[in-house]
Q: What sequence folds into this?
């Protein structure tokens, strides 16, 4: 079976399970009023109205048991069509007011009314003909539902599933409508795949960055400061700084120059850039009490950087001019959308803007692809690239030959750099083509991370210029790029990717030194060793507390410290230690005694070389 | 003569010169209406109303000549008193409406009305008795003026002076009042001191950081972004970063931990901190379009840092907890007050907050004083410290014994650290005593820079706690400190202090390599040398342009590059260069040929050790 065939089959399985679940619920609650039941990522849901009775996870056992009965019965799914007026009568007769409303809307206004719903839910043809005369139904056993399909041949062909949770959902997403209950299930082709998925969820729960953020004291939120506005503790700031420093080191090595801009601007800047119309309602507006100027918090950095470019005459010899900056932008996200670091209002970006001649685009983009690859190889994440190109529509601005040339360049570079890539026609921004990079984490989940975007429009809007070799005035091409993207969001990914077991170069505490007792010579020895390590640039913790050695070692484990050294009489006499290595970094069980200098030097080297997994 | 006697004498000279200037103007414009004429820093001014005639610098020659006549005449200054009603009649008879208004106000409302004026201008006793019955006058020759004095004995005892400029000034500073002309003069006890001062002004003009900022391409402003919001170019960002990195390195060495906070907060945070009432109208308010929360741009960092402290229970063993951060605060300064980097709206601070036990205050403050000293020694600026203590008033919050102890600690530390200091009673903040550091620049001007402030109030307001050894709950003492202060303002000082001739470690371009021609082998050699230098971490510029060597060398001088190397056949054959050293860094004239490796290594060491002036 091809990938597409497999995906289609899984879709049919999940959609059939939505019917089977609704069928089972109807067996158990005969008066249930049904909403819609689409396929979603990893599974399906159905919206049901039980007339005020609240479902809970406890009910899932009963529902699942009933579903298994229906599955076992191997009832065939049969498709049939009905004229729309007849369908409305059917819904009325069966006391299904939600279905009746949908059908009425369809009859009155055609498919346009139903934009809030997957058209598959409406029993409509896929091509979305707005003159609706007939709708299709699927029937299995005693259950009939308005549906476009497709379905599996019979109820026993649905793979493996599990009901997961129930949540409130307003009918058709409108707060003024009745609240229904949305029952979610996950489903896969085989029990093994289901098991893997559930295991992954279990592991993801343990790795939840919000939980680890609290356990490892990485960041906090404050009601007084506001939601979506994380405050990074010393430990979290180390991670943030180490990731940023690494990304910045790649920038410097690639000839980027750092600039520094304020976080606010007069709104005029965005009127020139065109962002005012696009971003207007995501802007935090800033009110000056001293002047009548209207300000905003910047939601992006390019217009500011353009002002630096525009501050001097530029010659073709000066190009490419490459600015970068790690700086925070602000976006006025809805409070409901905020959670942990995945989505925040204060978004720190490792942003860059290169201004280049047309003949330099290839070199500049190639350099950026190289930087993206260097970064994610070191972070231990594999990349996939989406080449987002234009389609035939006329919404794209800028010279067509420039587009064509740039897209060909991007495609060639993807090949040359052996990127795992796919092309997405119609996914380009209106201002230029782009490469979006997705990184796969340790649990196999994909996250959008770095991006490289060409921009043919801002240079025009800001009248950016350079004097060409022939003396003519030309517009540069702009290339936007972020390697980490949003550092907050990347941290949420990276904390879960590593499960908080950070490699030495990122770990907030790289070495912990434990004293076996609180006697002065031991404590002195420990403090001296710590001072030596700090002088070497290591981040060292000391545990001289009045606890047992076992408890101290467990504490170091809880904090996921890469190396733990216990100092007692033997170590003091020999000057040798046997470092305890954090489980995930251990490749063999040999724990040889090491000279302290030698051990510390190894850790320094491991940190400097940014090794992600190693053993001593 | 004691310092105080000298200062008093200079004050009398300057004040007498104000009278003499008014006298001279009255000779030349008999209808002049006089406002007030106080002593200001380095000189004096007088506000005059010439009935619409505009003075210009061209008039200064005539006025000065007339003043010299009066001076030469050695007219004694005579003091006499007049009952206030008689004085009003005198003003009316002499057609001096401004004086008449002042005297009328005085008669009606006592001294309180005249808060906008120096009481010396009002002929009032210094102790500010609000029942005004008599006022004093001074007379010399044909000129009489309402005045408290004191004056020099006669007009020939006024030292050396020069008229500087004339500017519009509203009568008593109110826009609704008539605009007068304010004529400024500078004056010193001797011609030599005047000459020195004028030379300093000339030099300061050349060093004006706004001018150097433009010439050396360090920062720019944009009308689209707004006034008071500088954008730092790559060169300016290097200076900013180097200064910041140095300040941060001192923090790390002193055990401070970096944290990271957002630039906005709900205004609730400032209601708790108490800043809302104090800073309310300097706040940039931020409007969320998505939520009803009220936000503000942070004008200081302490309340945010307090939220990190408060996020976990703290034990006496954890203290001192020392956070630092280089971050930008925003203050809504009046547009009229903004100019260059001296006063901006986006203020980057190298801010720190230490939370400590009462018995740790001394150690923490001592560490901070040490950091301040290390910083300014390296920057080549001498420091003076003002110990700002409480007075007997009851405006100070916090335990009195804590104040006493803390002030004694500060005084002891000032002695121990051999600070050049003075005590200023009544200059403490209401929340605690502080040390304000003033640095003297190369032109002898003093600038407020670092500050160390104790705070007994915020821990109380935020209910910050730690568990003491005896199990009781205690409040920590907070110590605020900035080493550079506002980095923008410090840059304005430092650019002028160095005249843009930055030491190697700060210089945006440390070495410039010039090719004698544009032939491939020379250009290759230059590029290879540049690559080698960059690998060593040096900031290198290359000039391969089609200009004469002389012109290229002059260009390197204009950009104030510390080291310039010219590469031609001789250098390529020998592998040796004779670096040109920027004038101010040269201590002898010997320019020996140096092996390239050897030369580059010297520059690296000079940069790493942050030498401020040196020679190869």
A:
């Amino acid at each position: 079976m091809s990938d597409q065939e497999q995906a289609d089959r899984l879709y049919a399985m999940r959609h059939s399970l939505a019917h089977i679940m609704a069928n089972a619920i109807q067996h158990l609650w005969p008066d249930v009023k049904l909403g819609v039941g689409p396929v979603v990522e990893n599974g399906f849901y159905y919206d049901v109205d039980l007339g005020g009775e609240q479902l809970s996870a406890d009910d899932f056992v009963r529902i699942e048991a009933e579903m298994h009965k229906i599955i076992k019965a191997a009832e065939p799914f049969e498709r049939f069509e009905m004229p729309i007026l007849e369908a409305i009568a059917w819904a009325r007769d069966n006391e299904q007011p939600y279905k009746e409303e949908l059908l009425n809307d369809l009859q009155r206004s055609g498919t346009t009314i139903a934009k809030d719903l997957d058209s598959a839910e409406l029993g409509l043809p896929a091509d979305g003909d707005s003159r609706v005369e007939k709708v299709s139904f699927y029937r299995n056993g005693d259950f009939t539902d308005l549906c476009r399909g497709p379905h599996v041949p019979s109820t026993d062909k649905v793979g493996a599933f599990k009901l997961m949770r129930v949540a409130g959902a307003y009918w058709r997403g409108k707060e003024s409508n009745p609240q229904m209950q949305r029952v979610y299930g996950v489903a896969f082709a085989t029990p093994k795949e289901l098991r893997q998925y559930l295991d992954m969820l279990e592991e993801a729960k343990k790795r939840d960055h919000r939980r680890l953020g609290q356990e490892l004291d990485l960041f906090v939120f404050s009601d007084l400061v506001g939601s979506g506005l994380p405050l990074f503790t010393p430990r979290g700031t180390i991670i943030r700084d180490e990731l940023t420093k690494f990304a910045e080191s790649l920038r410097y090595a690639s000839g980027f120059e750092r600039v520094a801009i304020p976080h606010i601007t007069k709104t005029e800047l965005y009127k020139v850039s065109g962002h005012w119309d696009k971003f207007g309602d995501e802007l935090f507006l800033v009110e000056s009490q001293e002047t009548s100027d209207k300000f905003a918090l910047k939601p992006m950095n390019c217009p500011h950087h353009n002002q630096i470019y525009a501050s001097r005459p530029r010659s073709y010899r000066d190009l490419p001019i490459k600015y970068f900056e790690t700086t925070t932008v602000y976006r006025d996200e809805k409070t409901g959308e905020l959670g942990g670091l995945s989505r925040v209002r204060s978004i720190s970006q490792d942003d860059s803007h290169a201004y280049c001649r047309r003949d330099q685009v290839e070199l500049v983009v190639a350099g950026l692809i190289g930087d993206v690859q260097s970064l994610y190889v070191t972070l231990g994440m594999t990349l996939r690239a989406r080449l987002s190109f234009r389609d035939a529509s006329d919404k794209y601005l800028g010279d067509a030959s420039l587009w064509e040339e740039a897209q060909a360049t991007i495609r060639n570079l993807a090949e040359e750099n052996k990127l795992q890539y796919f092309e997405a026609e119609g996914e380009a921004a209106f201002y230029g083509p782009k490469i979006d990079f997705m990184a796969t984490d340790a649990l196999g989940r994909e996250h959008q991370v770095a991006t490289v975007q060409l921009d043919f429009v801002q240079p025009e809007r800001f009248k950016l210029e350079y004097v060409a070799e022939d003396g003519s005035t030309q517009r540069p091409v702009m290339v936007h790029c972020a390697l980490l993207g949003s550092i907050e969001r990347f941290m949420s990914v990276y904390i879960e990717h590593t499960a908080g077991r950070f490699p030495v170069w990122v770990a907030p505490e790289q070495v912990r030194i434990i004293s076996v007792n609180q006697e002065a010579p031991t404590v002195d020895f420990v403090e001296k060793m710590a001072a030596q390590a700090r002088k070497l640039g290591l981040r060292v913790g000391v545990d001289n507390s009045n606890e047992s050695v076992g408890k101290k070692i467990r504490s170091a484990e809880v904090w996921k410290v890469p190396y733990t050294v216990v100092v007692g009489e033997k170590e003091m006499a020999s000057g040798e230690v046997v470092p305890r290595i954090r489980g995930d970094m251990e490749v063999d069980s040999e724990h040889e005694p090491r000279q302290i200098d030698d051990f510390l030097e190894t850790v320094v080297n491991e940190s400097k070389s940014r090794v992600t997994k190693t053993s001593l």
Remarks:
- Chain A touches chain B through 63 residues (CB under 8 Å).
